[in-house]
Amino acid sequence: MIPIHDNIPSRSVPLVNYLLIGACTLAFLIQLSQGNRAGEIVERYGMIPARVVHPGSTVYIVERQQVPTPVGVQVRDVRRPAAPSAVPPWLTLITCMFLHGGWLHFLGNMWFLFIFGDKVEDRLGHLDYLLFYLLTGVAAGAAHLVTDSSSPIPTIGASGAIAGVMGAYLCLYPHAKVMAVIPIFIILHMVVLPAPLFLGVWFALQLFQGVVSIGGTQVSGVAWWAHIGGFVAGMAAVLVLGMCHLVRSKVEAVRPRTDHNSIYRIFPRR
Fold this sequence. Notes:
Helix content: 40-55%
Number of domains: 1
Number of strands: 5
Shape: globular
CATH architecture: Up-down Bundle
CATH class: Mainly Alpha
Distance between the termini: 20 Å
Structural class: alpha+beta
Strand content: 15-25%
CATH topology: Rhomboid-like fold
Order of helices and strands: EHHHEEHHHHEEHHHH
Strand order of the largest sheet: 1-4-5
CATH superfamily: Rhomboid-like
């Protein structure tokens, strides 16, 4: 499911959300500019669980390379040391949030952050939202670290922190609606769904994949438990902030749109 819009307008300019999107964009452009050396940036700033658990030790990565042999070129698994970390290993729990593994990974994450992040920033305020985003991202990385602590594979991406934003959105706007595109075979279907249903289905898919692929990140290529940990951390954090009266009340929040600009007027339900 791809979210297109929700019916909760922003009441203020989401400066921090734009800043986070801009920082991720800049980091991704730097990655692209490095060409064949982009992998080195990932190894130096990505979160490698084995390195965090055993700081100072050499981490070896197994990758497939074309190796010349007397009978021709063969593809073999080659074990090599990973590039040294550019920052203390524990700090990669933060730096890894600003790196991405390709255009689809980058654009998907930034789009979800654009759709949901500004509303959460509305309720938390600029500084609290920034701290919330970073801390839930760290919690997401920690969840992956616990479930796959021996992995030498660099973990990168903002999806754990964005999952935290989605968890917070679910708690803050339980009555919101999300317009989404659902691809079924080659046909795209546009539907309006309650936010709890959209986010609940998303979380259920992450949980299912996480249970199925425990210990198999190298095969799946996705840190499912980072998504799960970030989502749960986001829900828990916003509930605690609410109890501490650090969340703006619903009375202060802008109500769902009902004017002619509503997504329901633009895309009427049938």
